[in-house]
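Re: that backbone. Tokens:
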């Protein structure tokens, strides 16, 4: 079953996002995290992707270990930024050789602090072009439709802002038209943001499942860092709940309670499952999965 099929099945899915380790110490910690996450029997795990050669190699190692040691289906992220078409083709072929059949096609973020940065002259500019490129490369290897699936990013919090709404829908429709079969969302904190995006997408002819991505917030410090990283504001009510607790354990519990309530509301509203951003830590991700009733 591809991830497209899993997201179209009646039971809500549980999945986790991991990122490739940067050194040996982080790698050992990640192997432990993966072993613990595997105990919740997730439907799949996604692995983020950076354009550097080191991260590429460690992404492949994570993918291999997920599939071999834990029998967890990998969803390999791919990005356009700073790579030629040929380089992107080579990465897709490496993943295919590892047995990967599910891809998340993203543009990637241009490097920060480089005002003279220009897109690669022989690269791809937008995620929808990457979707078409993956389909081309996979098709050329004789892998049939239905044996692989391609997802893309969606942005519920940006959609909540009137000024981004139509552009976001146009871009998501272009991704679907290029062959995307599911979407995974950026982090957000209010069920209504996903519900409005899902309803508006359907009205615009976007029928692919939109899988919500959730982060359990464990402290006000972490909430502030995430706001900075993602540009998505944390609601005042959540910040107050985190700040009201005077010890770290109670603040953490408040954060898990909020994320679990969000997950339950989303599944009740028809979300195909929940994708948990783990930051390569298993504890909060597993507590959230258990509190939301999604761990097996
Ligand atoms: P696109 O759809 O290409 O959109 C990028 C920008 O171009 C948007 O502003 C869009 O409005 C605009 N645009 C799109 N099409 C057109 C067009 N035809 N004409 C004009 N403008 C257009 N980044 C990484 O580097 N590695 C990762 O592993 C990674 N994983 C992610 C996972 C998820 C679930 C999410 C939500 C994001 C992830 N990102 C990752 C970040 C992502 O790459 C950035 O958010 C990026 O800025 C947007 O990516 P996109 O795929 O939506 O790009």
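Recovered sequence:
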């Amino acid at each position: 079953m591809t991830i497209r099929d899993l997201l179209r099945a009646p039971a809500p899915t549980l999945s986790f996002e991991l990122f490739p380790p940067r050194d040996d110490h982080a790698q050992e910690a990640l192997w432990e995290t993966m072993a613990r996450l595997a105990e919740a029997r997730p439907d799949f795990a996604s692995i983020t992707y950076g354009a550097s050669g080191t991260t590429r190699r460690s992404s492949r190692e994570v993918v291999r270990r997920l599939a071999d040691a834990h029998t967890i289906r990998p969803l390999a992220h791919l990005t356009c930024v700073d790579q030629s078409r040929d380089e992107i083709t080579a990465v897709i072929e490496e993943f295919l050789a590892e047995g990967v059949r599910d891809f998340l096609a993203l543009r990637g973020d241009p490097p920060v602090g480089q005002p003279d940065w220009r897109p690669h002259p022989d690269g791809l500019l937008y995620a929808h072009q990457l979707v078409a490129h993956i389909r081309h490369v996979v098709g050329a290897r004789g892998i049939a439709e239905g044996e692989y699936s391609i997802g893309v990013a969606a942005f519920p919090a940006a959609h909540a802002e009137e000024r981004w709404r139509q552009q976001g829908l146009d871009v998501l429709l272009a991704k679907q038209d290029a062959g995307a079969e599911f979407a995974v969302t950026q982090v957000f904190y209010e069920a209504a943001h996903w519900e409005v995006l899902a309803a508006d997408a359907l009205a615009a002819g976007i029928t692919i499942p939109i899988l919500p991505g959730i982060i359990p917030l464990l402290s006000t410090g972490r909430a502030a860092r995430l706001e900075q990283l993602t540009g998505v504001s944390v609601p005042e009510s959540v910040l107050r709940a985190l700040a009201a607790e005077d010890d770290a354990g109670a603040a953490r519990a408040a954060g898990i309670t909020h994320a679990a309530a969000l997950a339950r509301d989303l599944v009740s509203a028809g979300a195909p499952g929940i994708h948990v951003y783990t930051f390569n830590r298993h504890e909060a991700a597993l507590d959230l999965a258990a509190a939301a009733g999604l761990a097996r």
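The pocket of flavin-adenine dinucleotide is lined by residues 48-50, 77, 79, 106-109, 126-127, 153, 167, 171, 174, 184, 186, 213 (CB under 6 Å). The mean pLDDT is 94.
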